[in-house]
Amino acid sequence: MEVTSDLVAKYVDHRQSEQASNATINREMAALKRMFRIGMFATPPKVFRLPKFPKLTEDNIRTGFLEDAQYRKLIAYCPDLWFQTIVEMGRTYGWRISELINLKVGQIDVAARTIRLEPGTTKNKDGREVTMTANIHALLTQCVAGKSADSSVLTRPDGKPVRDFRETWANACKSAGVPGLLFHDLRRTAARNLRRAGIAEGVIMKIGGWRTRSVFERYGIV
Description:
- By secondary structure, the protein is mostly helical.
- It has helices at residues 5-17, 22-40, 68-77, 81-93, 97-101, 134-144, 166-176, 185-196, 201-208, 213-219; strands spanning 108-109, 114-117, 128-131.
- It is 49% helix and 5% strand.
């Protein structure tokens, strides 16, 4: 009951004096607001009023892209099949890391040249199916050779599934002259490349898994 709008405002000022970013403060405000809402809708209610929680302006939208020349340097750093494949698929379809490293052989149809993400396995729970490019078809044909349907598509030379490759990615980016590039920036790269190829925006959104226009526009920079 002692948490008032004035106290919240003082807290925001205090966090800003500690050089906390607006994005960090907003996440803290969101967590506290969520706590209050849970308390309000409990039976019986634990709190009876909801203070106003400010939402600060965030200026943290990334603008990173992987250019073609940088891409060639990037994959030259690590010739392993799994790395070549995950980078190629990331920049082609704009899929998230979790969607790629969790791919199973049963989702790959080499003959039909399709890749399927099952409903419920993606961030927005929607299923997707895409056609392979020639490069991806060649890479995936090697990735799935000799494996069972429930095996991981992306595996290291020792056969272990790829789970964490942050160190390899960071070193490859330095080698390519793009230190600080995030794998997630490949989503932006894919959106731009698909747009340049003349693909309809509605189709691009379905390929990359962007459900709303507002979110897509943060990636699909014109």
